[in-house]
Amino acid sequence: MKMxxxxxxxxxxxxxxxxxxxxxxxLIKSGTKTTREVINFLRKSMVFFVYVEDDALDDIKINEELxxxxxxxxxxxxxxxxxxxxxxxxxxxxxxxxIYNLVDYIVADGSTNINLYELKSYxxxxxxxxxxxxxMACFLGKSLGYGGERLKALSVSGILHDIGKIKxxxxxxxxxxxxxxxxxxxxxxxxxxxxxxxxKYKTFSDNVLKGIYEHHEKYDGxxxxxxxxxxxxxxxxxxxxxxxxxxxxxxxxxxRKRFTPNEAYELIxxxxxxxxxxxxxxxxxxxxxxxxxxxxxxxxxxxxxYVVKQNESFPDKPIIRVTYxxxxxxxxxxxxxxxxxxxxxxIKEVI
Length: 351
Ligand SMILES: [Fe+2]
Fold this sequence. Notes:
351 residues, alpha+beta, Molybdopterin biosynthesis moea protein, domain 2, Hypothetical protein af1432, 5-stranded antiparallel sheet, binds fe (ii) ion
């Protein structure tokens, strides 16, 4: 809920707290939707401010719900990967149901206002990375006009894109520091292994397979395993490669500092045309913001708050509701600051 002065009150907002006049008479009940008539009535009744429901908070609730579904899927991922190694069609179908559950949730209720930046560090990096890549691919696919079975297939391909890593020695996967040429060549085989694991099943379409096999191809032809170029690379793989890189650099690893959301975003934009398909990068720009609504952030002046609104075309300069002052260590009466109008203020970190 937030306080709004009557002069700023607009139609189609929901009154969050009932309003009474000085005699205690109810003027308007909480839950009422504002219309021009309601606003005029309140004005005539000499009401100066009201409390209204806050969309930003609804978005935060949606994020929490997605987090729950995500954790649930995450817990089942070791089982999903193991089952897929058996080569048994029935096991594959069972695994797919677990993934479909997550995808169904995203398709039905998910908002693109998700936090793509990994806030917590998990032990099972590979699994969380797979799920985040799948979720992001699902949102990006939706933006590209995908729906139904095709969108599900894309998300499954995103979640399973690195399944071949199961066959790579863990010393290479978890090595801190730079890989030797030999180790890197061994790591590169994970796309081939992934293809071999998945192609055994009738359940998976050719598109799912290509998403897995080609996710390290680059738009300019310098990727692997085949060195495919431009639209020779399947569309699934062109989508997944963007999501893969973004979620990988946004994650905390023991051997390197993660990119800030801004740096990760810039990395994708700068790879347009070289690593990534420019048309899909353009869609990426239109789909995701650097700091989604509800992200808790710390500003360069020490104030803390959360994102309540975006400035279109300026994905790293949202509007922040400041609620806490770290200099005085005190909560403060909330106020909003627009980073587009205060260019000396920047987001220092996500908290
Ligand atoms: Fe990979």
